[in-house]
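Problem 12. The chain below contains 188 residues. Write out its predicted structure in token notation.
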Amino acid sequence: MTLPAWEPTNPQQDREEFDWLLNHMTGARSMLEIGSCIGFSLRGFATRLVPGARIRSIDAGVCYNGTEEFRNEPYLLAAIQDLDNRGFDAAVMIGDSTWPQVINWAREHGPYDFIFIDGGHDYDTVKSDFKNYSPMARQVGLHDIVNTGNPIYGVHKLWREIKESYWVQEKIVSEKGTGYVWIVGNVG
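Solution.
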């Protein structure tokens, strides 16, 4: 499979921020990633999960770089198959994370020790993802918590709201930033 020229060959995360987040979720027995693109970050998370952990992914099936898009489903399915071959219980749902049937699929496979939200970056979508999926988890990670000046991005606005109500930590060494939320009282 040939990737578009703009597609990275590693997780679309800053390495230091990603390692920091991996340290928080080490030992998890279950996880859900919303917005997996071609599965690099899923593979990274798997390095810190317990053997045989349950891995779930939700993805719209299209990756963007701001001007170009491509169908990522074959690449993500290959990543899921690789995780299965390595002994994990991995599955993916291709669909919009705000659709009721997608939320129900995630709920049926939950709860989760860790959820990573990195799908739609507009305020309404990321707020919907946090509202719909965080009750299914003990820990939630969010990517792109810094205001990059992109008028479409709204993760930074939601991050400010989350910080008012939850116990959080953040790691910002890049222009994007990564946040971690401990959801007190949730069962994972």
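Discussion. The mean pLDDT is 88. Students who got a different answer should revisit the alignment rule from Section 12.3.
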